[in-house]
Amino acid sequence: MTSFISDQDFTTPAHIRVTLDDVKHEERREPRGKASSAPFHTLVFLAAVWLVVSAVPIGYLGAGRYDVFWSDAVTGITIAIVTTIRLLHSIPAFAWVTGGLAAWLLAAPLVLQYGWSSATANDIIVGVLILACTALSAADD
Fold first, then answer.
1. Which of 19, 100, 113, 126 sits at a 20 to 30 Å CA gap from 132?
2. How far is Cα of residue 20 from the mean position of the Cα atoms in its chain?
């Protein structure tokens, strides 16, 4: 029969004693100093939502620019879906997809010939924001 006291090691100083459980707990701990890229993903997601919603206040449909509306709506929905997947599963390869869609936002005014309008300014601002946040989040991944 053993007791609690007989099972303890009193000869080794407490600051030196390390149990196997402590070692396993140390291995499971995440490394310190690694920044989270979640704020960047959140900004990209909110920018994508703005891209979809912005058709109303900017007035794409009132100007008869259905091509601009559909370009921004499809791009915004796709960026929101890809960003949600990246936020939940941390797949670094999807950064290229988001970057490509942001590049489309920058090229769309030239390809679809918006002219200089509020839609052009919106696409350029949102495209630069998404591209910058994607690059910063990809650097953290």
1. 113
2. 37
Please report whether residue 74 resides in a domain: yes
Q: Is residue 23 part of a domain?
A: no
Give the tokens for residue 50. 């703005």
Whole domain around residue 47: which residue ranges? 38-140
As for how many domains the chain has, the answer is: 1
- Give whole-number Cα distances, 141 to 20, 74, 123, 138, in Å: 31, 26, 26, 5
pLDDT in tens, 62-95: 656 788 888 999 999 999 999 999 888 878 888 9
Predicted TM-score (pTM) of the model is 0.70
Is the predicted pLDDT of residue 28 greater than 70, yes or no? no
Q: How far apart are CA 44 and CA 76, in angstroms?
A: 10
**76-108 burial by CB neighbour count: b if 16+ within 10 A, else e?**
beebbebbeebbeeeeeebbebbeebbebbeeb
